[in-house]
Structure formats: structure tokens, C-alpha cells
Amino acid sequence: MESIILTEKNFSKLKELVKQYNEKKIIFYSNDDDLNRKVMEKLPIKVLLIPLDERKDFMKQRNSGFNEVLAKIAKKEGIKIGIDLDEIICSQNKERILSRLKQNINLCKRNKLFMEFFSIKEKRNLILLKSLGLVLGMPTWMTKNLELN
Q1: Domain range holding 122?
Q2: What's the pLDDT score for residue 145?
Q3: Is residue 41 part of a domain?
Q4: In this predicted structure, what is the pLDDT of residue 58?
Q5: Which of 22, 102, 94 is closest to 66 using CA atoms?
Q6: Residue of 123, 132, 149 lying closest to 94 (CA atoms)
Q7: What is the pLDDT of residue 23?
Q8: CA-based nearest residue to 88, from 76, 100, 78, 72
Q9: In angstroms, how far is CA 75 from the centroid of its own chain?
Q10: Whether the predicted model's global pTM rises above the 0.70 cut
Q11: What is the pLDDT of residue 62?
Q12: What pLDDT score does 124 carry?
């Protein structure tokens, strides 16, 4: 199935784009937490791709852009959570990104959500990605169904 990444910030335009690409696998990529929640609740997307690099952390915890409320919505709607490998590799703040990613993995593990890796620049080995997932704390039921797009 062919996939398309949508990054529109206006909800009404995004709604039209989703109708236009309804036969493709829709991946939504945004920094706006409120828009992420609205899109997850109202539009038929397959994957939510959350950028981890440009966020400002809270005083006592990391701001990973994903929380318990979004996890419950994703479980109800059958939405996977995406991991951008290019962002991890090209970033200057690898420690921060990896700790935010671990936080997201723990939320997905608690709520029985599936995750998916994305690498646009170059093709990656799926076995190495599964082992990366295991090192970051993914359970085996999640790594068994990992995909690479």
C-alpha cells in the first residue's frame, strides 16, 4: 500500500487532503499537540509521526508530544505511532531524542499500541531496527510486527 505524509497545519485543508488520498496509507506529521489530538479523533489516519527534536522539555519530565490521552485515542482508532529514524540520526541532541522515544515506547507498551519506523533518506535493515527497538524497551510482541516505510 502506498503511503503519503501530510503536514498541513489547517484542519479544514487537511480534511480535504485526507478525502483526496483516502486509498493511500495516510501518515500525519505535526508539532501541534492540539491538532494531533483533533486529527486522531476525527480523521482516518493510519500513523501519527511525532517530531521529537524541536520540543522544549517540562521541568520534571520530557515533552515527547505523546501522552496517555493520545494513547487511548490511538488505541480506540487503531492508529500506529511513528518513529523518524532520520531525525534520530541527524540530530545533535541524540540523548534527548532517545529519552523522549523511550517515554513514547513505554506509553505504547502500556496501552498495547504498535509502532512503525520511517526512514526517507535511505533504506534500513529491518533486523537492525528490531534490535534497536528491543534496546529502547520495546516488548517482543511490538518488535515482531515492526514495519519500515
Answers
A1: 3-144
A2: 83
A3: yes
A4: 82
A5: 102
A6: 132
A7: 87
A8: 100
A9: 13
A10: yes
A11: 81
A12: 85
Asked whether residue 149 is assigned to any structural domain, the reply reads no
> Which amino acid type is present at position 125?
N
Local mean pLDDT, 10-residue blocks, the chain (149 residues):
88 93 91 93 94 82 88 96 91 90 94 91 87 93 84
Does residue 5 come out as left (phi exceeding 0), alpha (psi in the -120 to 50 range) or beta? beta
The grid cell for 99 is: 529519552
Q: How far apart are CA 83 and CA 65, in angstroms?
A: 12
Which uninterrupted H or E stretch holds 91? none
**C-alpha closest to that of 68 among 29, 117, 32, 33:** 33
C-alpha torsion sign, points 114, 119, 124, 129: negative
- CATH number, domain of 112, equals 3.20.20.140
Burial 112-144 (b: 16+ CB within 10 A, else e): ebbbbbbbeeeebeeeebbebbeebebeeebbe
Question: What is the length of the chain?
Answer: 149
Classify residue 95: in a domain, yes or no: yes
**What's residue 70's pLDDT?**
95
